[in-house]
Structure formats: C-alpha cells, structure tokens
Design a protein that fits this description.
The protein is built from eight helices and nine strands. 28% of the residues lie in helices and 16% in strands. The protein is elongated, with a radius of gyration of 40 Å. It is α+β, with helices and mostly antiparallel strands. The protein folds into four domains: 47 residues, no CATH class; 56 residues, no CATH class; 52 residues, no CATH class; 91 residues, no CATH class. The N and C termini lie far apart (97 Å).
C-alpha cells in the first residue's frame, strides 16, 4: 500500500480494500500473526532506542544550573572540601559528589607563586643573561672542543641591540647551586605494624620544639661523565662519642659529626 495515500471519503473503495488485504497477508499465516512480525516492522520503520531514558527513576532535586549558582555563592576560602560546601549551602554530600563526577564542579589546586618586584625580575633576567654568549663561536672550534664545553645554540634578545641574534647558552658545568635543607630526626606521629603480643614503644618529648633537627648542605650541579644515575642527598658524617657532658647528652654518648674533609674530597672533580 502506498504510504502517501490520502482518503477522499469515509468508505474505502474496492481497490483500496484489496490493497489492505494484500498487506495484511504478508504478516499473517492462516489468520494468525507471524512470529517476530512486530520486530521486523520495527527494524524497517521504527526506532529501537529506549524511550525510558530521562523519564524514569528519581527526579533530580538539583539541576546542574542550580548547583553552579549555589556553589558560586559560597566564598572560595570555604570550598576546600566538599563537607565545607555542604555546611555552607545545605546541599547533601551525595549530590555534590555526583556533580563532581559529572564535571559540574571541578577540583583544582593552586600553589603559591614567588612575589617578585621589578628588582627581583631584573635580577633573574641578569642571571639568565650572564649564562648566554652574545656571539656563537666558529663551527670548527665548537667541534674541536671538548664535550663539556660544547654549547647548544639558542636565540635570545641581546641587551642594547634591540633585536634577536643567534647566541649560545653556556654549558654551566662550572656552576654549583648550594642550599640548606632542614630535617626533623623524629616524627610527631609514627605508624607501624605489630603482631598480636607486641605493644608500641613509648615515645615522649617535652614539646615539638625539642625534636632534634639536622641541616644538610645540598649542592646541585650538572651531571658529569661519572654520573651513576643516583639522585639524592647523602650526608658525610661520622659517629663519635661526646667528649664532655652537656644538657643534650652525657659524656660518651655517640653523636653525629660532619666530616667536612671527606665531603670536600668527594665533591672535587
């Protein structure tokens, strides 16, 4: 039967009735409907997509627009955790976490940046510029030099020239950065695994101010040819008994002493 057929009257004509019978005979057998006839018709003309999506289940209490507006009203210092947001606007933790997974709200972290004035910025620029050569050497000279003194060409802004020129950065093999690092020899809270018959050791201290501290002088430089791939700070200390009694320890107690001579001998190239 033609799908674009339009009826002109209330009653069907004889030809129209025959067309209807022929169409019905293709989907029936002895007056009964064929198996899977409805699915075959659906595959040809219908849609298989479920119409329940978005229409069933619990209705959303908060739309994404409501979450955005409500969270935006909370001051940023009170948005460090989801529980803080829940206490500020009254939205349940479940709804906040669900919108976090959906991407309506996002978790971001911020780090402190160095507050530099104009003098600090100029000092940094001067330090960078001090490790740049204004004019690149001859190619033959660079190839004949040692590997440690070879430099990579870069383009930098020459001070006083007013334009870009080809220069080269220094290898910085003769530069050593020194920095002090403080470490506590003990922790305020220490975790450990014990068996059934064991008890944790008692640790006592007057206050956190009495926790001993150790300072390391760290030196950072470019790796040399003897670099073994290990990165870290290694203290050069010796254990020796205390010569005299002090308020920190009695005489004869083993203490750590810096071995400056060993440190210097190892640090030299």
């Amino acid at each position: 039967m033609d799908a674009s057929f339009k009826r002109n009257g209330r009653e069907l004509s004889h030809e129209e009735k025959l067309n209807v019978v022929q169409v019905l005979q293709t989907s029936t057998k002895e007056g009964a409907r064929l198996d899977q006839a409805d699915r075959g018709t659906t595959f040809k003309t219908g849609e298989l997509k479920s119409k329940k999506t978005g229409r069933v289940g619990r209705k959303q209490r908060y739309k994404p627009e409501d979450i955005v507006d409500t969270v935006a009203e909370v001051p940023k210092p009170q948005r460090s955790t989801l529980r803080d947001i829940m206490d500020a606007n009254g939205i349940s933790l479940y709804n906040l976490h669900k919108n976090l997974k959906a991407g309506t709200i996002q978790r971001r972290s911020s780090r402190l940046k160095p507050l530099l004035n104009d003098a600090n910025k100029l000092a940094r620029i001067a330090f960078c510029y001090s490790h740049v050569r204004r004019f690149a050497p001859d190619v033959g000279e660079a190839e004949s030099g040692s590997r440690d003194r070879r430099c990579a060409p870069v383009a930098v802004l020459a001070i006083g020239v007013g334009g870009l020129q080809e220069s080269e950065s220094l290898d910085m093999y003769d530069v050593v950065h020194l920095d002090e690092k403080w470490f506590n020899t003990n922790k305020d809270r220490r975790k450990g695994y014990l068996v059934a018959d064991e008890t944790p050791d008692r640790r006592a201290c007057k206050s956190k101010r009495y926790i001993p501290k150790v300072m390391f002088l760290a030196a950072v430089t470019r790796p040399r040819g003897i670099f073994d791939g290990k990165i870290g700070m290694r203290p050069y200390v010796t254990r020796s008994p205390a010569v005299r009694t002090s308020r920190n320890r009695p005489t004869g107690t083993c203490k750590h002493a810096n071995d400056i001579g060993e440190c210097v001998s190892i640090g030299l190239p």
